[in-house]
Amino acid sequence: MVIKAILFDMDGVLIDAKEWHYEALNKALNHFGFNINRDAHLSTFDGLPTIRKLETLTKSQGLPEGLHDHINQLKQKYTIQYSHKYCKPTFNHRYALSKLSKKYKIAVCSNSIRNTVKTMMELAGLNSYLNLIISNQDVVMPKPDPEMFVKAIDSFSLKPEECLILEDNENGILAAKASGAHLMKIASPDDVQLDAIENKIKFINQSTNQK
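The structure corresponding to this sequence follows.
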């Protein structure tokens, strides 16, 4: 067996929370007369940690740096509110992780803060299947830097080629590729199915054995 660990992104992979993050940040920004339109969100901001989004807004829209901490706190508060309202267990994800966790190490590596990751994993009923959580608070450089994935791989005492990463957005994909691990691109959380993941691992193992 070549693959020994599976590293999941959270938003857009295990949790369909992209819209919650978008709405929560705009709700916080609206208090101060700022806003991120949907096109900019998809092209520039998607997948970045909130603090990076605020830094970008300072450069592009003149958001005062002195508001960053306050807006960030508001955003995290609203994200948790949306999570408790919308985040629920999904059969396909619980089934997949319950089976995979018996054969592989499982990690979630997310650009969200740790409290958000833990809250969503608990609400989604996935927490018991995880061996490791890496949040943006656990690294110096968030995605698209590969530090998050490299740290998870090192924590498992594995080599990059022994790990499969599931990612959906460009920042995460860049980070996954830079880590040296195998990549499975996800279009939406509906793509996270046990059969699809097992087929990807089978393909990787067969390709490696043929070299």
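The mean pLDDT is 94.
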